[in-house]
Amino acid sequence: MTKKTGNQVQDQSVLDNFKPLLVDVAVPLGSYYLFKDAFGMSTFAALAWSSVVPALRTGWSLVRDRKVNGLAGLILVVNVVSLLLSFVSGDPRLMLAKDSGVSSTVAIGILVSVVLGKPMMTAGMKPFLVKGDAAKEAAWERLASGTAAGSAAFRRKENVFSVVWGVVLLAECVARFVGAYTIPVDTMVWLGGVFMVVAMVIGFVVSGGLAAEPMGRMLTAEVEAAPAERAEVAVAA
């Protein structure tokens, strides 16, 4: 059996994190112009059909994993309800505005998870910091469980990481909603993708500087401190 290196684990994590982004941005954008320009569909029809793919992806992930993920379930419900409302109204701008509903659902879910003491973004951040290293994995567990000296500071940074992403996604939600009703529909179709990419970049930069990088340093310090602490315990015994 071939053992994956830390870099391979990290690369796989990056790929897994960006697959949904590629599906939810690139595929709907490309299919919108395909349906409208190549097949001659109306703006509303093209938007409706291009919105089906993200909803199907979320639904399939729930079926494939055979478990209900609260956030994924909320996103699916928001997508389906928004699509139904859009079909009833026949308003392409409402179809665009539904994307802000998805962003706000994710953002609120992240912020609520912080309040509940289970920051949602930790699952995506941890592989980047641990990198498949057993010593760092053990150090993470000590810091996260409260048994290490720097646990309180580590958990504060863990919360900060999720709060940054929650706030950034809320801002993206507002931008999408305002754009849906003030910018020409054809422009907003691709501009909505730009909003998401910009939000992702801001999220990575700000959360990295405020939380991920300091947490990485704490992990390294904890790994280095562990042998000395074990030696002290052995001497005392």
Please describe the topology of this protein.
Elements lengths: L5 H33 L4 H23 L4 H20 L2 H24 L6 H9 L3 H12 L5 H32 L2 H52 L1
Helix pairs in contact: 1-2, 1-5, 1-8, 2-3, 3-4, 4-7, 4-8, 6-7, 6-8, 7-8
Structural write-up:
There is one protein chain. This protein has helices at residues 6-38, 43-65, 70-89, 92-115, 122-130, 134-145, 151-182, 185-236. The protein has 237 residues and is mainly alpha-helical. Helix 1 (6-38) packs across helix 5, helix 1 runs antiparallel to helix 8 (185-236) and helix 2 runs antiparallel to helix 3. Mean pLDDT is 76; it is low at 1-15 and 230-237. It is elongated and about 70 Å long. It has 8 helices and no strands.
The assigned structural class equals mainly alpha
Largest sheet: none
Radius of gyration: 21 Å
Shape: elongated
Low-confidence stretches are: 1-15, 230-237
N- and C-termini, Cα separation: 40 Å
Fraction in helix: over 70%
User: What oligomeric assembly is this protein in?
Assistant: single chain
Mean pLDDT: 76
How many strands in all?
0
Strand portion: under 5%
Q: H/E element string?
A: HHHHHHHH
The number of distinct helices, counting runs of at least 4 residues, comes to 8
